Amino acid sequence: MKKLLSFLLLLNSFLFAQYDVSASMGLDFRSAASFRDYVNTSFAFGNQIGTFKSAVSFNVEGDYKLSKNFALGLEYNILIDSYNTPFGIAGIYEISYNIMRPSLIAYYLIPGEGYQFKFGGGIGYRSVSLSETIISKNNYSSSGIGFLLKAEGNTLLSKNFYALIGGNFRYDSIGDVQNNGNYIVNKSTKENLNMNSISFGIYLGVTLTF
Question: What is the per-residue DSSP string for the chain?
């Protein structure tokens, strides 16, 4: 009986693909109050940043299925954003940043014939690299922690190859950017610029299962 049970458990582990590898590109709608207030009050006199600003993100992920309905995933996500506006006499103000957002994610899976749904939540390290150009260019950085929720659907295109569409919600607590102890200060509020934010994102990509 024990041998039969062991055989059935082993057989079950081969009835579904155990690994998913995906790549996607998305659009995030990000609300970063400190960043928005700093730019709007200091430089964006005729070109204000709204409550939510769009930014492009890129993502690669690998998931391991613990069972038919549960999986653990490791994603590496990067968000890229920039803003520029005329400043002074024939001058340009520019601020840009990249945020690295790796996360460990736990998923609940709903598999089916030719499709798969995934619902998950995770946590990870966050790191931002920011550059600001007024007259000269200065670079800043900071790091912190982030949380996310994801919902994703996969539709079979061919054997083991799926198209994916998904959405996510993120909260990132990254903190004040600095350069060797030098901070960017909002002169209106007397507060340091931090990159904390919430965001909603949508993304499209492909998934390979094996």
Answer: -HHHHHHHHHHHHTSS--EEEEEEEEEEEEE-HHHHHHHHHHT-SSS---SSEEEEEEEEEEEEESSSSEEEEEEEEEEEEEEEEEETTTEEEEEEEEEE--EEEEEEEEEETTEEEEEEEEEEEEEEEEEEESSSEEEEEEEEEEEEEEEEEEEEEETTEEEEEEEEEEEEE--B-EETTEE-EETTTTEE-B--EEEEEEEEEEEEE-
